[in-house]
Structure prediction request, 337 residues.
Amino acid sequence: MTQVVYKPTDIDFTKPGKHHYLVAFPLDSNWGNSLVPLTVINGLNGPSEKNVVAIGGTHGNEYEGQVSVKRLCRDLDPATMRGRVILIPQLSQSACVANRRESPLDGVNINRAFPGNPRGTISYRISNFVKTQILPQVHAVLDIHSGGNEAIFPLCASFHPIPDPQQRAETARVAQLFDTPFIMLYSSQMHSGLLTDEAEAMGKITIGGEFGFAESTHRKGTLHAYEGIRNVLRHYGLLPGDIVKIDPARPAAPRFVQAVNLEDYIPCPKDGVWEPTVDLGVDVRVGELLGRLHDFSDHSSEPVEIRAHRSGVVMMLHFAAQVKKGLTLYVIAQDVR
Ligand SMILES: [Zn+2]
Prediction:
């Protein structure tokens, strides 16, 4: 049974067992609501100090998080669990339905809307709900992303530079539970209003990540997201059992890389058709050819060669062939030492 709640404060976060809700956020322009799905599980084996929230669909056209968190809504059994797990498979529900990065209701990317505003448009009200009602209850925040239609990444869990050494060390430990080939330390300089930045600033153990691309449901990315969330629950004792090695075919531990300065997120120099010449996740030397930009207004013209501005590992490439001046064309990260 799924219960519609019209006031977020009507969700009973302490009720034992598993309870499914649709949290109603009134539309700005019509009679009706965006019904954001939310499941609360309170394990029957007692409480925990270290509760967890897992979120998918912060961006609507990224499906690995939506699918893995939805599956967990069914698969997790409170009879075997301790503590509290909150699952939100489609946070920006209207964006998910529309297969878009931002909500079509207000044109807002909810991952730039934090800490939100209780009197703002729908994306600001949903982010304010997360900020005030969800984040204070949990120790760990898992926000599952992928490249959408913008970018391709090698599978990676991610977090931002964290000044507090203890929080940094625990975050790194928890990120490894997703067993992705890479763990990426992102720059915090590019944007403001991110869910993960907000949670990190509140002292939460916060993991993001890129688990696929191309508005698809990446098989392996979904496996890492689903089993990685379960590993985090096992790590904090909310779910019984040992940590699972998610990709036994890759014996190496995740490789920690970082691109913490904006200088490593290279904007496209001009509009064109992008032809990458390297694979994701490979090591390149400074000056190595990464791709060509073609100008079809003159098919006899020389392409613009895009060469690595530094040595390191290719952690992101623009996805679509058609690329506009200023959009991020590639990211080169370096090993964390
Ligand atoms: Zn995203």
